[in-house]
Every structure is written in structure tokens, then in C-alpha cells.
Amino acid sequence: MFSFIVSRLLQALPVMxxxxxxxxxxxxxxxxxxxxxxxxxFTEAQRQxxxxxxxxxxxxxxxxxxxxxxxxxxxxxxxxxxSRPVAExxxxxxxxxxxxxxxxxxxxxxxxVPMGVYTGLYRNSWLSRFFLTFSLIGxxxxxxxxxxxxxxxxxxxxxxxxxxxxxxxxxxxxxxxGLLTWSGLxxxxxxxxxxxxxxxxxxxxxxxxxxxxxxxxxxxxxARARGLPNRAVHxxxxxxxxxxxxxxxxxxxxxxxIAFAIVTETVxxxxxxxxxxxxxxxxxxxxxMAAYLMMIAAVFVSINLIVDLLYYAVDPRLRIGRGxxx
Amino acid sequence: MIRRLFLVAAAxxxxxxxxxxRTVRWAASGDPNTMDPHSQNVGTVTMMLQQVYDALxxxxxxxxxxxxLALSWTQVEPTRWRFVLRQGVKFHEGEDFxxxxxxxxxxxxxxxxxxxxxxxxxxxxxxxxxxxTVDIVTKxxxxxxxxxxxxxxMMSKSWSERHNATRPQNTRQREEMHTVRSTNGTGAxxxxxxxxxxxxxxxxxxxxxxxxxxANNNGNVTEVVFRxxxxxxxxxxxxxxxxxxxxxxxxxxxxxxxxxxxxxxxxEGPEVRTLFIAMDTxxxxxxxSDVRGRNPLSDVRVRRALYQAIDIQAIHRxxxxxxxVVTGTLFPEQVNGYVREEDVRLPYDQAxxxxxxxxxxxxxxFEITLDCSNNRYINDEQIxxxxxxxxxxxxxxxxxxSMPLAPFFAKIQRDDTSIYMLGWGVPTLDALYSFQSLxxxxxGAQGDGIWNYGRYSNGQMDALIQRMKTExxxxxxxAIRDALRLYREDVxxxxxxxxxxxxxxxxxxxxxxxxxxQPFFRWTTVN
Lengths: 326, 527
Fold this sequence. Notes:
The structure holds two protein chains of two kinds. Chain A contains 14 helices and two strands, in the order H-H-H-H-H-H-H-E-E-H-H-H-H-H-H-H. By secondary structure, chain A is mainly α. Chain A has two domains: 2-72, no CATH class; 87-282, MetI-like fold, CATH 1.10.3720.10. The longest helix of chain A is centred in the first third of the chain and has 36 residues, at 86-121. The radius of gyration of chain B is 25 Å and the shape is globular. Chain B folds into two domains: 21-227 and 507-526, D-Maltodextrin-Binding Protein, domain 2 (3-Layer(aba) Sandwich); 271-500, Roll (Dipeptide-binding Protein, domain 3), CATH 3.10.105.
């Protein structure tokens, strides 16, 4: 078990290295931070002083190695745009993104699974047809359009929910949460739905097809033959067996939700990491972009590791296989 | 019974409180990057800080100069200006405002890490004469020093020293400076809280010296809450749903809707920002063209042909939806030196454009690449698309290379361009700023030709710019007029239009429209 974790961690290292290299190489194309920082008025001498100050006059590999050396120590420097430590900026924005992502995931699971079960059980009811049509919208409409439609209906027409921002937040140590205030909860609804809708439809369709698959199996027929009530058959036997792939997919999708919250955060001006990243791209704020991409890579690597470990725990074949030394 | 009385009293207090508190919730697409008054010279920073900080000289609703922290100023010698300071002014944290603070602030703006060099470039030093008198000594006579000083905010010397902020932020430092998120000004509003990219709250400073002049500073806003909202659609939605009271940059396509909505209105006005096409007139061969061995753009006939091929009225009508002021000159009328007779365009005439090209030796036209930003000016990419199509129609086959502002400015600042579109604002509101930055021969001196990426160089123009720098009165105005005429005849740029800036707000808000796109809440009323 221990050697398994260590070997996975060692495999993660080159992944992180490659990600950092690729992201750093990309920055050559996002533009010149110097031009942005100097504004409208400067002299050539000031420009060159700033280039030297930022180390942009050094060769690419020297810049990359400096960046890497600092990154290993958790030192990402000062944001060019905001003149504040990058690590602090990201730590400040992380709670907003994580809360949003978790709520989106919870909505997707809490609504997606029952809808999937229902459509799997009653394939021909009109409600199932409605759910399926609805899920088509979730899959096919781009996120920003869904967000704007929700804003139009629930903020502009009905005036029920705020169209942007995070509402009032409560600070619990370094964590800021919007879950404890009424305005924070109200502000969370639309962005969480927008972000979770795609995953919701994905989970619903997954559960539906898995249910249909499982309901055809012999042990379900056998359970029915034994005269077990429908409820026990559907939820005790069928649903339980569909959940293994669902949990795997949901876990992997959580990483995607965190990483791709960018669009939702931009539409709702949600003060999370995705919005920070987009604004940093606009200002060619390389330290923030680099740190963000590294962090997202780290999130994916660790989620994959956890999923691997779950497999290891769930699937006995994996353990036996390794135990025999194959 | 007592309990009931208490409730009634509490309710009355609540009502009174509600009548007193007048909040403006204000949104724009961009957030100020810093609260340091000398660090970044960009509009988003200034729009916030000018509520909090005062300069020696203020600006009125028409952007004319008026006394600020200085009551009067005189040029006692050609290179020495004397400022008499307002007495009894206090900073928000209680320090007295004195001549020492002025000397400190000017010195701070002169630091190499300051972005405000252009406003203090001629200053040699500032000297305190007594507690309420300051002399500013310039290296050479500077007739427009007061215009420049209207952009230099005054900080407290003791506060800055206490917080280790005597220089603007240095990017190499690992530590965040106190001034990035804290302020201590003398202005009409105090910074109460600041969460970058989320919320900035200003509250009224009842001790501000300007409230005494109630006829002028008639605002009744007690609290300003600024919320940046980057997405255009969301910003408009927030205004329509009543979550925001005032939007500085509504998208043009939503203006009609905002005009027709019951509770919102649109305030329109010109901005001091002029869009034009500039081009490489100096290389022997263009970097991005199929013409070999010569540079078509160094020929004034070709420049005129490109000028006359542009149907500016079509751009005004269609691309800008009427939200532009078509121009034939370098800056709008708010800028000192503007001459209406020189604000005349070469007429739109495709046949004439083709004839000029043929005359210059390009009967079949040529190929060229137009560099353009796509997120800096209002509808910038669409304007360039229209121009590219118009040029192609007269035979100059134009490839459009549009990109976000970060790579765009990086590219043109390397002189890596043949022809490009630029928009130019004039914070000093004086002609010299535009001529010096855009048209002077680049010589390494502060300001001269730093934005002249076509490297236009004309001895006559340089001589006129030199006269603007040193002469005063009528002689100086004459130099500006001659330079404007030369600009029209020699076509170093193809002028397009001045931007209009619509502000959208709830109907119960009234505020004067400012041509520098910087609202002043001291003049804002909420009903």
C-alpha cells in the first residue's frame, strides 16, 4: 500500500514538471507585462529598468529555473497587477471557488441521481421524457448562456436572486464562507446551478443507463422472484450497484468543476480563483497565471491519486494482483 | 408600555437613519489594481482615488482648473511656481496638511517606481517656504505645470513614513506595501474597506474642506460601494434588476434597452480620447507588406489615399451606433489648443483614393497588415474590420491582425508594426501631451515620441513642439495651431473619432458627466 502511494507520487512529479514547463512556455505568447505595468507614460530607461527588475531580460531557461526554484519553496512572488503576494491572493480566492464547486457537485448528485433512477425505472412516463429533454439542454447549451438566461429570469424579471457577487461572507479563520448568511446563500444558487447543470445531466444519464443495465441482471430478477418489495429491489439492490461508476465519474468531475469554474465565475463575478485567472490573463500577470495552473495541475494529480486509492480499496483484484507480484 | 415606547423610538430612529444614508452602488468592468496614488497611472485607479485624495489643483465639472489644496498659484520666476496652501485641512487619520506633505508627495511622485513621471517630468524639486507656502522649481520653464499638478495627489508625510511607504511599490519586493490597500487622503470620501476585485466601500468625510462650498459640492451621497463586474451582460442585468445604481461602461448594444427601461437612464457625453490610425513612415521597407525596396506609407499621397478610402460616417452610424464624434484632428475641444478650423476631415472619396494610389506608383494597390487591439477601446476590433474592408475596396489589400491589449501593446512597443490603430487620452488636457508623445521624434527624453511607434519624424513638427514646451500665452497657442495645421496637411495619422462614453444609472441618481470618464461623487445626488 505504502509503496503504491510512493510510486504514484513519483509518477506525479514529472507530470507537474511538464505542466509547469508548458504553462511557462505559453506565457511568451500572452503579451508583455511590462507594457501593461508602465501605463501610458514612461521613458525607454524606465522600461528597461522594469524589464531588468522582473528578470525578463534573462534567457528563457534561466527564467524557468528561477520560477521553478521559487515554486518548490511555495514562493510565487508578487502579482504584477495587484502588487500582492500570489500565494495570499490564491488562498483568499480558494474558499469561494471550493464552496461553489462543492455546492455544484452536491446539486448535481442530489438532483441527478434521483432523476436518473426515475428515468431508469419509468422509461416511458411523460416526466421521464421531460427530464431527458431537459438534460439535452444541460449538455448542449454553453455555460455562459445558461448563466445569462438564469440571471435574466431570476434577477431581472423575477427579482428573486442576485445577479452577481457572493453576498455577505463570514470569516472563519482564513476561510471565508457565504454559507452562513442569507445573502450568501441566495448568491450561491444561480452560479451553483449554472456550474452543476452539465454534471447533473451527465450523472442523470449515467445513472439511468446503469439502472437499465442492472435491472436486466439475474440477481434483480431473483430478488423480485423472492417477493421483495419494489423499494428494496430498486434502492437496496439496483441503485447500490450503479453507484460505483457514478462515484468515480463524480470524483473526477469535481476536479473539472474546480478547474472550469472560470466561465461561471466570470458571468457571475464570483470572486474565486477562476475570475482571478481570467483577470490575470488580461494583464499578462505571469506569476498569478503560473501559480494557478500549477495548482490546478496539483488538484488533478491528487484527485487521480485518490481515485486510484479508492479503486485499490474497492477492487480486491487489484490488491491480489499486486500481492502475487504480477 | 415602556417596551412599546421603546419600540416606537427605535422605529423612528431607523426611519431617520434610512433617510440619512444615501448609498450609490457603482459598477464598472475593471477594478482598481492598487490604492497607491503614485504607482499606476490608469483610469480605474484614478476614478477611485480622486474621491479620496486631493491634488493641489482641482478640476471643475468642465475639467477647467480650480483651487484644490492650493488656494492660489503664481509663476514668481520662469522656473519657480509658488503655491499658497489651504489652511486647516486634515488628513482622514487626523494629521494636519502642511507644506511638508506637498514636498514629500512631489518627491514621491518623482521616484523611478512612480508611474506619474509625465506629470512631474519638468520638476527639479519642491521647497517648503513656510508651513502653508510651497515653491516648485522646474528644470525649464513649464507653462502647463498647473495642468499637470491636477493629477498629482497629496499624501501625508508622517503617515507614509510610519507605514514604510515613502516610495511607490517596487515590483521586486516580496512584501505588499501598506498603500496597496490603505489610503489616507484629504478628500471628500474616506476608504472604509477594500476587497480587491470584490468590493470597495467609501464613506463620506464630513470634515472635508469642500463641503463648505455647498453650492458647488452639492452631492448628498454618504456611502459609495464599488463592485467590479467584468461580464457586460451581468453588469447590465445588475443595473436593470436594481442591484447596482450606476454603471460606467454599459455595452453599446444595450443602450437602447437601458434608455427604454422604466427605472434607468443613459447619460451621454464625449470622452477625451481620440482614435486614429498611425503608421510606419520611417523604415525603408515595411515589415508587413508585399512592397519591396520602398515604403509606400512614407509617401503622403498614399497616406491621403488610405484616409480618403475610409467612410467614417458608416463607422459612426453602424459600428459605433452613433456613439462617436467624428474628427479630423488629434484631440477634442476640451483640450487646450483645439482649433475648430483645423478639425476638418479629408472627404471620403474612393475614386480619389484610387487616383492617389496610382499617382504614387501603386495602381494595383499593395498588401498590408493592420494591427489592432480587441479589448481596449469601444468596439475596436469591429472598427478595424470595417477599415480593412474599406481599404481593400480601393486596392490596398488589408489583413487584420487583432489581439488582446497585452500582446498588442507589447508588439507595437517593439516598433513591430506597419500600421495600427491607437486611442489616445489627454489627462493634462493640453495639446503638448499629445504632440509630444505621439509625434515628436523619439530621442530618449521623458515623453518625447514614446508612443510614436511609426517613428514619424518631421523637423518642423519637432520645432513647434519645442515652442509649446517653453513659450507662453499667444505665442504658445500659435505654435499649437501651426502644429495642428501641419498634422492635417502631412497626415502622420488618419484621425477617426473621439469616443463617446455613455454612463447608465438608475433614474434617481444624478451626476455630471465627466469627459475624462472619472465621476466625482461630491457632485452626485440620490433622490
